[in-house]
Design a protein that fits this description.
alpha+beta; Uridine Diphospho-n-acetylenolpyruvylglucosamine Reductase, domain 2; five-stranded antiparallel sheet; 12 helices; 13 strands; globular; binds flavin-adenine dinucleotide; binds iron/sulfur cluster
């Protein structure tokens, strides 16, 4: 059994106190919300904080405020279950309700928060392993080692952004509010992410994500589709978030963001641009899906080999837009959609960046 190392748990009751605690304890401290990602990482010694600043006792971080007309503000410690079940979110920002409702299992959605989901660690088959396993293979750059075991010639880490809600929030034009002892700032959600498997967040470690601010719905409709190995509780190997605004049956605006294919969500801007000014036909959807596969260049370091992921990526985007079309014509919510894939054939990575042999199976 993997055990947690000793640590001090602080339970501030205001955001100010939490910010001050983070400033006081510096690099020794980490924030914890639901703990569904952080505690397993501590058990595997991927995170080694001696102080945890818990956010669960801070009431101002919980709940959903506002509505479709003026925009919705979601407290960072609102659970994923609450986000998925919230009526205004389900009706006006359906992709977000779908994504939150597809994270892991009901138990984890009851504990896991939307703030923790946005900040969740990147994943890699060589990293999501016990300390002993990682020690046996010599560790890697992301923790305790000096080379990347996926792409040994590469100076960077290619661990994959695996949040379900991050690509959706990006496609919806969300902003995030950050608080620290030094002050507050609000940034577009896309400015929160960096294309680096280690430094994957552009915020300082002492900054607390306090709120997620969704803009007015203003005619935007959205859908999210997720590909994963097991439909019951797996991380995404591909997430496709689409938001469209229509004028009659012509697309006026479009945003398309892909998750789980790089160290940060990837916007598929060329594909989105190809939709604007057009009627949604099966031919257009096929062309746009192929364009959208462009930014998806995953390595073989997560659940499914990169080739299957890339072609699945194109299929998912086609399905996502068709789901959106069905929803649009029915005026209702799209069927919650997830697909699991069969046991992947493990193979050597085909990326020119990579010289590794077959990757290991991942562990939780
Ligand atoms: C078996 C299993 C399956 C999973 N499947 C999925 C999945 O399908 N999709 C998915 O997206 N995730 C999945 N997860 C990961 C995780 O459960 C979710 O991402 C969850 O939403 C994390 O939220 P949390 O509140 O538990 O975060 P925590 O574990 O508390 O924190 C996660 C990270 O975010 C930081 N953090 C938390 N809150 C804040 C805040 N307010 N401000 C700044 N930093 C903060 C923490 O310091 C930590 O680095 C899975 C986890 C497990 C164990
Ligand atoms: S991509 Fe490389 S450095 Fe990053 S976690 Fe995987 S093996 Fe480690």
């Amino acid at each position: 059994m993997l055990r947690l190392p000793p640590f001090t748990y602080l339970a501030p009751s205001t955001v100010d106190d939490a910010g001050n605690a983070m400033a006081e304890h510096g690099a020794q401290a980490m924030l914890v919300a639901g703990g569904t990602d952080l505690y397993p990482n501590m058990k595997r010694r991927q995170f080694e904080p001696t102080v945890l600043v818990g956010l669960r006792a801070i009431r101002e971080l919980r709940g959903v405020r506002g509505g479709a007309r003026d925009g919705v503000t979601i407290g960072a410690c609102t659970t994923l279950s609450a986000v998925a079940a919230h009526r205004a979110i389900a009706v006006h920002y359906p992709a977000l309700a779908t994504a939150a409702g597809l994270v892991s299992s009901p138990q984890l959605r009851n504990m896991g928060t939307i703030g923790g989901n946005v900040c969740v660690d990147t994943r890699c088959n060589y990293y999501n392993q016990s300390y002993e396993w990682r020690k046996a293979v010599g560790f890697c750059t992301k923790k305790d080692g000096v080379i990347c075991l996926v792409a040994p010639g590469s100076p960077r880490c290619w661990a994959v952004s695996s949040s379900d809600t991050a690509p959706v929030l990006w496609s919806l034009g969300a902003r995030v509010r950050l608080h620290s002892a030094a002050g507050e700032r609000t940034i577009p959600v896309e400015a929160l992410f960096r294309d680096d498997g280690i430094e994957y967040l552009a915020k300082r470690p002492d900054e607390i994500l306090t709120d997620i601010v969704l803009p007015p719905a203003d005619g935007w409709r959205s859908a999210y589709l997720k590909l994963r190995r097991r439909g019951s509780f797996d991380f995404p190997v591909l997430g496709v978030a689409v938001a469209l605004r229509m004028e009659g049956d012509v697309v006026r605006d479009a945003r398309l963001v892909i998750g789980a294919v790089a160290s940060q969500p990837r916007p598929a801007s060329a594909a989105a641009a190809a939709l604007v000014g057009e009627r949604l036909t099966p031919e257009l959807i096929t062309r746009v899906a192929d364009l959208a596969a462009g930014p998806a260049k995953p390595l073989d370091n997560t659940d499914v080999p990169s080739a299957s992921c890339s072609s699945a990526s194109s299929r998912r985007r086609r399905t996502s837009r068709r789901a959106w079309c069905r929803r649009s014509s029915r005026g209702g919510s799209p069927r919650r959609s997830t697909r699991s894939v069969g046991s992947p054939q493990r193979s050597a990575c085909r990326s020119p960046r990579c010289s590794t042999a077959s990757p290991p199976a991942r562990s939780w």
